[in-house]
Amino acid sequence: MKLLGVSLTLCVVLTLSQARPSMTPNLPGLMEEENNEICPDGWSMFGKRCFIFIDAPKTWTAAEFYCQFEGAHLASVHSSEEYRFIQFELKQLFYCQKLKPT
């Protein structure tokens, strides 16, 4: 299990800088601007946070540096629901890797 902590980088974007406004119908003939927050390509959203899972050997310092380069930080868990989300995403990541031809 210790190897997993070293070999997987989990970054999280705390503020979504790529929020895109969209128009939503309000009253007939009127449109209301709505702020739909989305994650960058390849990132997964949970709540108002975006996560990306990088399967590459890195030290803690190198992983944090990588995340900062991406405009993020290493993830910290804020709730049991978020913890379950991260567990599910990790299981999906490793399941997909097992299916890849070697």
UniProtKB/TrEMBL annotation:
Keyword Signal (UniProt): yes
Record InterPro entries: C-type_lectin-like (IPR001304), C-type_lectin-like/link_sf (IPR016186), CTDL_fold (IPR016187)
SUPFAM superfamilies: C-type lectin-like
Residues forming coiled coils: none
Annotated signal sequence range: 1-19
Highest taxon in the source lineage: Eukaryota
Keyword terms: Signal
C-type lectin domain sequence ranges: 57-91
Designated name of the protein: C-type lectin domain-containing protein
Species for this entry: Kryptolebias marmoratus (Mangrove killifish)
